[in-house]
C-alpha cells in the first residue's frame, strides 16, 4: 500500500507540527481518516517486518536487508523509487523500527525534525538509496542481488561490513552498478581481509580502481583478468597508504 | 559505463567528438515506446558504422559492438551486445525510471589489436594504434530519454493557490519551501483567481500568472540544489528532461514558454473565442 500525493505532501510539510507523533506517538488516526491505503499491484506479508533489528550493527543491517528484500521481493527498481510507498512504511507498519533505529529520545526539536526528514522520506535518489529507514535496506538487497544473484547475502556481508564500505562502494554507482565490475570488488574484499579492516586502505583502493579503470569496458573481460586488475589496484593502494613521508 | 564528454583516449577512437577518423561515422538512432502501465520501454532503431576496417573487426569477433545503457535513478549500468544494423531492445518491466542514457560503442575484444583503418588521423604514431581487450575504439553520441510517469504529471499538480493575509491585494508571492509551489495571494485576489480558474477565460492565467511563476521557479532551480528534495522539483526536472530543456543554461523565458506550451498563443485564442 502507499499514501496519496496530498497525504505525502502534508506529512512532509508538517514534520515540525508532528514531532510528538514521531517521538512517541503514531499516525493511526490520520491513516484511518485519509488517503493512506492505495493498493499496490502485489501482496506482501508486512507483518514479517516486525522482525527488523534496531541496533544498527553490521549483522543487524545484513539481516534487515535480507528480510526487507524478501518481504518486498516483488518490488521493482522502478517502483522502489516511489516515495509514497516508503512514506507509508516508515509512518505505519515500520514506525517503531524507524523511530528506534534513527531517532534518539533526547534529541532537540530541530535535530529531530532533521532526522525525520532524512530517514522517514525518500524523495530523491540518494534519500531513497542511502537514507530512508526502509528503502535503504531494500536497495542494499537489490544491489547485492545484482552483484551475486544466487547468494545476495554473500555480497551483503562485505558491502555492509562497515558503514564506510557502503559509502565508498554503493555510493559510487559508476563502479558498483556495473555487475561485472562490482562483482570483482566483492571478490577482492573477500580475498583481502586487510581491505575489510582498514578504512583508509579501502578508500584508496576504490580511488585506484576508479583511476586505473577509467574508460575500460570490464564487461568483456573475464573474471581472471578482473581479479588480476583488482590485485594490482590493491597493491598500489597498500603502497600508497603505508608509505612514510621522506624527510 | 558513462564516458565524460571531455574524455580523451591515447589511441584513435571513431567518434564525432574526437575527429580521429576523418569523415567516418558511427551513429545511433532510437525511438522509445513506453508502456507506462507495465513500466516497460522498448528501444527500436539502428546503429550504423561506416568504417570498413572496424566493421571487419566486429564481424571477425576481434571487437564487440553494443549499447551502454545507464539509468542512475534505478542503479542500472549495463552493456548489451548488438551487431551494427537494426536494434530492438526491451527494457523489461521495472528496470528504469527517470533519465535513461544510451550510447553505442565498439570495444576491442583482443589484446594487441592493431587499428589499421585508412581514415585514422596521420598524427597517431604506429604504437598508439594498438589497443587491448576492453579498450573503446568507437563511440556514438549519447541519446537520452525520460522514463516513467513523472514527466506526464500535469504542471498544475505542483502548484497550490494559497490565501495569505499578509500579501497586499493585487500582487502574488511565491513560496518554494513546501512540497508544492505555493502562490500566495490576498483574500480578494484569491477569491477572484479561484473563480477565474473555473471559467473559459482561465487560460489568461497561463501568461499572466504561471509564466512569471515558472520563470522564477526555473531560476531558483538553476541557482541552488536546496529544493532538490521537494516534490515540485522532481516533477519540474522530469518535465524539463523530457522536453530537452537544460535547466542550468538557456533563456528562462524560452524554457518557461515551452513548458507552458506557448501561453501567449493561448491568450490570443481566448480573445479570438471571446470576440466570436
Strand content of chain B: 25-35%
Low-confidence stretches of chain B: none
Largest sheet of chain B: 4 strands, antiparallel
- Overall structural class of chain B, as computed from helix and strand content, comes to alpha+beta
Largest beta-sheet characterization of chain A: none
Number of helices of chain A: 17
Q: How does the overall form of chain B come out from the CA principal axes?
A: elongated
- Count of beta strands of chain A: 0
- Enumerate the spans of chain A where pLDDT stays under 50 for 5 or more consecutive residues: none
Mean pLDDT of chain B: 90
**Helical residues, percent of chain B:** 25-40%
Number of strands of chain B: 12
Name the largest protein-protein interface in this structure.
Answer: A-B, 38 and 40 residues
Beta strand % of chain A: under 5%
Q: What best-fitting shape of chain A do the alpha-carbon axes yield?
A: elongated
Radius of gyration of chain B: 25 Å
Helical proportion of chain A, percent range: 55-70%
Count of DSSP helices of chain B? 6
Would you mind describing this structure in some detail?
The complex is a heterodimer of chains A (247) and B (276). Chain A has helices spanning 5-13, 19-24, 28-33, 58-71, 77-80, 83-91, 95-102, 109-119, 125-131, 135-147, 152-159, 163-169, 173-176, 179-191, 193-197, 199-212, 223-242. Chain A is mainly alpha-helical. Chain A has 2 domains: 1-149, no CATH class; 161-247. In chain A, helix 4 crosses helix 10 (135-147), helix 4 packs antiparallel against helix 11 (152-159) and helix 9 (125-131) crosses helix 10. With 276 residues, chain B is α+β, with helices and mostly antiparallel strands. Helix content of chain B is 26%, strand content 30%. Chain B is built from 6 helices and 12 strands. In chain B, the strands form 4 sheets. Chain B has a 4-stranded antiparallel beta sheet. Chain B has a 3-stranded antiparallel beta sheet with strand order 1-2-5. A 3-stranded mixed beta sheet of chain B has the order 10-12-11. In chain B, helix 3 packs across helix 5 (252-259) and helix 3 (204-223) runs antiparallel to helix 6 (263-275). The A-B interface holds A 5, 8-9, 12-13, 76-81, 83, 117, 121, 123-125, 127, 129, 139, 142-143, 146, 173-174, 176-179, 214-221, 225 and B 1-3, 7, 9, 39, 64, 70, 72-79, 93-98, 105, 107, 109, 133-136, 147-148, 157, 178-180, 228-231, 234.
